[in-house]
Design a protein that fits this description.
about 210 residues; 3-stranded mixed beta sheet
Length: about 210
């Protein structure tokens, strides 16, 4: 068994998802196991909470790389586990500076303001990461195990599990580092007539379907 695992979710349609083959191949390239969740295991709040199965995987593995099923791994993708090896850090892409995510500010800013440890960027906005790709390790397991104990804070479940994950990371003072945009390249409605997205490692097809 590898020390690391790449985890994704494909409930009810796992074998039909066109991204799965590339994720399996990438796990081999990274000398990691692969775990695809085909049936619900968490059954809590909403579908997105199934990704909290990573807390159980951390009982077996040193690190878990989670990625949404709409993430396409390009053929020459770098090994993210080698690029971000510090197991004391939680790695994900900080999307705060993306103008397309400004609609989240009314929900995110008041919530994370309640978390005194959430860092501010150079525009005095709270760091807010996208939860479509993240790398979490065993030393952080204890901070996520009680994820069912959700505090009664307005907006904490905005955007599925994503805002809550941000809350847990910063509330528990977990050392956060953003990954390079090329490891979570989202178009979010922006046109890409020169196909620059193909220069990335992971292309995350999140947002409106506008590509060219």
């Amino acid at each position: 068994m590898s020390k690391n695992v790449i985890f994704t979710i494909g409930i009810n349609n796992f074998d039909k998802l066109p991204t799965m083959g590339a994720i399996v191949d990438y796990s081999k390239k990274c000398d990691s196991d692969f775990f695809g969740l085909k049936n619900p295991m968490i059954n809590y709040q909403n579908f997105y909470f199934e990704k909290f199965f990573f807390t159980y995987l951390l009982g077996k593995y040193d690190s878990v790389l989670y990625m949404d099923a709409d993430v396409l791994i390009t053929p020459n993708a770098e090994n993210i586990l080698e690029k971000y090896p510090d197991q004391e850090k939680f790695y994900a892409y900080n999307e705060t500076d993306d103008n397309e995510t400004m609609d989240r500010d009314p929900f995110v800013e008041p919530l994370l303001a309640d978390v005194p440890h959430s860092p501010l960027d150079n525009k005095n906005k709270r760091t807010y990461f996208n939860a479509g790709v993240f790398l979490v390790s065993k030393p952080q397991k204890e901070f996520f195990e009680n994820f069912r104990k959700i505090p009664n804070i307005p907006g904490i479940l905005s955007f599925g599990d994503q805002t809550y994950l941000n809350y847990l990371v910063f509330k528990n003072k977990i050392n956060f580092e953003t990954i390079d945009y090329k490891f979570n390249r989202m178009h979010l409605g922006k046109k890409d007539p020169e196909y620059k997205r193909y220069e990335s490692n992971f292309i995350h097809y999140a947002g409106p379907n506008i590509l060219s």
